[in-house]
Design brief:
about 220 residues, alpha+beta, two-stranded antiparallel ribbon, 9 strands
Length: about 220
């Protein structure tokens, strides 16, 4: 009965979906322009990076730092054997999208629709870096005070549930660059996207960011 109704009203449903997506895009654009209070200019301190691929954003932090040594949670000798790791990038997002879509050509309509319209399980995408990222339009550097850096690390730690032996739970291999997926707290949905997660982390650290940041550009336009 429901399928029959949807079939007969497919045209109307498509129009409403298009209207909804248009309103979402407009709201995302406007939310991106409204800044939350925070530090706008870089200051001396710990250097971190926010990296974008145009769709998704990550935090990139030194793996070893006096205020936070990530080697305790993500031991490189175990996770990345034979590889020198100086930085780790942290990205949060829809688990099914991460695990089932190594390339855009692998994207399934069911995966995309579920990620957009239904709150779903999240995952943490961890990527090792053997050297410091190069700053460019899609990779911005920030300098955080000790307090800001601790607050950002605390935000990241809240995302990472610990399991046996007090370690994160590995749930899948990445896209071929030594990257890995781990279980993560939170639910991904239309109003809590990967970029909004990055934006919330910046806000927690006291860095100026967007009121709402559903898109990668929403995050990057507020960074120096």
């Amino acid at each position: 009965m429901i399928l029959r109704w949807m079939f007969h009203h497919a045209g109307s449903i498509a129009k409403w979906l298009m209207l909804g997506l248009l309103l979402y895009a407009v709201a995302g654009f406007l939310g991106s322009l409204v800044p939350l209070p925070g530090e706008r200019r870089a200051v001396a301190g710990t250097q971190i990076f926010v990296v974008s691929n145009g769709v998704h954003t990550d935090f990139c932090l030194p793996i070893q730092h006096p205020l936070m040594d990530w080697r305790g949670l993500f031991p490189p000798e175990t996770l990345f054997p034979g590889r020198e790791v100086k930085y780790l990038s942290f990205g949060w997002g829809d688990r099914a999208f991460f695990l089932e879509t190594p390339r855009w050509s692998d994207l399934k309509a069911q995966t995309a629709l579920k990620a957009v319209f239904a709150p779903s399980k999240a995952a943490l995408h961890l990527t090792p870096w053997s050297q410091q990222p190069q700053v460019h339009t899609q990779c911005r550097q920030l300098f955080l005070s000790d307090d800001q850096y601790k607050r950002l690390c605390a935000y990241l730690l809240q995302t990472i549930p610990l399991h046996s032996e007090g370690l994160p739970l590995l749930i899948g291999q990445g896209y071929g660059g030594g990257d890995l997926f781990f279980e993560a707290n939170g639910r991904y949905h239309l109003f809590q996207t990967c970029n909004e997660w990055t934006s919330r982390g910046l806000h927690e650290a006291g860095i100026q960011t967007a009121f709402w940041a559903p898109f990668a550009r929403s995050v990057m336009i507020h960074l120096p």
